[in-house]
Design brief:
Oligomer: single chain
Shape: elongated
GO molecular function: DNA-binding transcription factor activity; transcription cis-regulatory region binding
Structural class: mainly alpha
CATH topology of the largest domain: Tetracycline Repressor, domain 2
Protein name: TetR/AcrR family transcriptional regulator
Radius of gyration: 21 Å
Largest sheet: 2 strands, antiparallel
InterPro entries: Homeodomain-like_sf, HTH-type_TetR-like_transc_reg, HTH_TetR, Tet_transcr_reg_TetR-rel_C_sf, TetR_C_Proteobacteria
Keywords: DNA-binding, Transcription, Transcription regulation
CATH class of the largest domain: Mainly Alpha
Pfam families: TetR_C_7, TetR_N
Distance between the termini: 48 Å
Number of helices: 9
Strand order of the largest sheet: 1-2
Strand content: under 5%
């Protein structure tokens, strides 16, 4: 049985008891499929109830509203798909930045994230709460994490950036901006992973003379 493109496999007999986390995960997986396939406005809580195969009481007890469900979905995507950790003390700044930009671009340009971004853009005029949730739990989260890492590099003498927050925005825009636009409009030939890695290397070569003490060490 498939609802919203989400397959429900019912096993004979009494269903196995799920933990609270397992129930939430199953509801969120069904909600993601419904939102992406039908759109936010066209998806109703009853659709999610049918797609996840649980009772309406269980779904409402876990999330309460469709907006809460979407906010939880964005939070789950952010924490499932990307880890932006503080660098080790002995890592040169360019190695750290290259790794962060590579992981961040792979996340932002993944099919899953592009689908959610496209959903938010298409629905934001009629459902501004989506744009707010996406900004607060997605865009702002990534920028704050990257700013924190750049500030740490500053504090440990590995980077000389007067405005880490502004540098974070410039780095993300330079590496991800064009590729995200081509992905959103389904352009036939988006930038490849190899091309993005080459762009990261080129960007770092421009940064080293002015932002990294002693030119740092070239990222592998």
């Amino acid at each position: 049985m498939s609802i919203c493109g989400y397959s429900i496999k019912k096993k004979p007999g009494r269903p196995a008891a799920l933990s609270e986390d397992e129930r939430r995960d199953q509801i969120l997986a069904a909600a993601e499929q419904c939102f992406v396939s039908q759109g936010y406005r066209s998806t109703h809580m009853d659709d999610v109830v049918k797609a996840c195969g649980m009772s309406k009481k269980t779904v409402y007890r876990s999330f309460g509203t469709k907006e809460n469900l979407f906010v939880a979905l964005i939070d789950r995507v952010m924490h499932d798909d990307i880890k932006l950790d503080m660098p080790e003390e002995n890592q040169p700044a360019d190695v750290v930045i290259a790794d962060i930009l590579s992981r961040l671009s792979a996340f932002v340009l993944s099919d899953r994230q592009v689908n959610i971004t496209r959903l938010v853009i298409s629905e934001s005029a009629h459902a501004p709460e989506l744009a707010a949730a996406f900004h607060d739990n997605g865009l702002r989260y990534c920028k704050e994490k990257l700013t924190g890492i750049l500030s740490r590099l500053n504090a440990t003498g590995r980077l000389k950036a007067e405005r880490p927050s502004e540098l974070a925005s410039l780095l993300v825009g330079a590496i991800i901006g064009e590729s995200l636009v081509t992905a959103l409009i389904r352009r036939p030939q988006p930038m490849t992973d190899r091309e993005r890695e080459g762009r990261i290397d080129h960007l770092l070569s421009l940064m080293r003379p002015s932002l990294m003490p002693n030119g740092a060490v070239q990222a592998p």
